[in-house]
Design goal:
5 helices; 243 residues; mainly alpha; elongated; 4 strands; 60% helix
């Protein structure tokens, strides 16, 4: 969890040798992303954009209601203009009155088309805002990913450094150097430089048995160990138990 990372205060190092560069990368990414993500700037921006999208949706609904009302009004205006034109043709009303009615119809029709155009603009603006919201969300995820990648890079460099410079014992025990070593002495890859004897006085041994003898072996059975380097006739044997 990236938030747990930001809850910790990272130390400042300047003398890490080969590890200075990956640590510096992590430190720079951490400071940059921490200042942005923990301040909540991007989350507040997302909230603001989301509010704007809601406002656009409300304006679009209001615009749609106005379109429906004006469509009804335009129908009435059209009927009135047609009626006055028929009366004008019969000489019952003046030609000017019929023209005025038709002019009102065209003005209302123009206003209606503008409202319908506004609906398209609302859709375009909403798409742009949703894109802006997605880009802000993507920016947050990118900052988090940068932090994690810098950590993985640093951990990998530390692992490589350990493999290159450290001799890690697989068990606890006492170190016995194979030869005298001096400070800053160069060593060859794969060179044997020391052995480790266990702290415990107990020893574990393995023996290979033929298949025909397996039926005679039982847990807890007494074992007599004879050392090739120490003739048992002279030094005796060691007793053990099958574990």
């Amino acid at each position: 969890d990236v938030q747990k990372i930001y809850s910790r205060k990272i130390p400042i190092y300047f003398t890490l040798g080969e590890l200075q560069k990956p640590y510096q990368i992590f430190q720079d990414v951490f400071i940059k992303s921490n200042s942005v993500l923990t301040s909540g700037i991007l989350n507040r921006k997302k909230k603001s954009i989301d509010d704007e999208i809601g406002q656009i949706a409300n304006m679009k609904r209001s615009n749609k209601e106005q379109v429906e009302l004006q469509e009804k009004d335009l129908k009435l205006s059209s009927d009135e203009a047609e009626s006055l034109q028929r009366l004008s043709d019969k000489g019952l009303v003046s030609v000017q009155e019929a023209k005025n009615s038709l002019s009102k119809y065209y003005l209302k029709k123009q206003s209606l088309e503008q409202l319908k155009g506004s609906e398209v603009n609302f859709d375009i603006t909403a798409i742009q805002k949703r894109q802006e919201f997605a880009e802000t969300d993507k920016k947050i995820e990118e900052l988090k990913m940068e932090v994690l990648q810098s950590i993985f890079l640093m951990k990998n460099e530390i692992l490589l450094w350990k493999q290159k410079y450290l001799a890690i014992a697989p068990i606890d025990g006492y170190v016995h150097f194979s030869s005298v070593l001096e400070k800053n002495q160069l060593l060859n890859t794969g060179e044997s430089i020391l052995t480790i004897s266990p702290k415990s006085e107990e020893y574990y041994g393995e023996i290979w048995l033929g298949q025909h003898n397996l039926g005679k072996v039982k847990k807890g059975q007494r074992v007599v160990v004879k050392m090739d380097s120490y003739p048992y006739q002279e030094y005796g044997t060691i007793e053990g138990r099958i574990d």
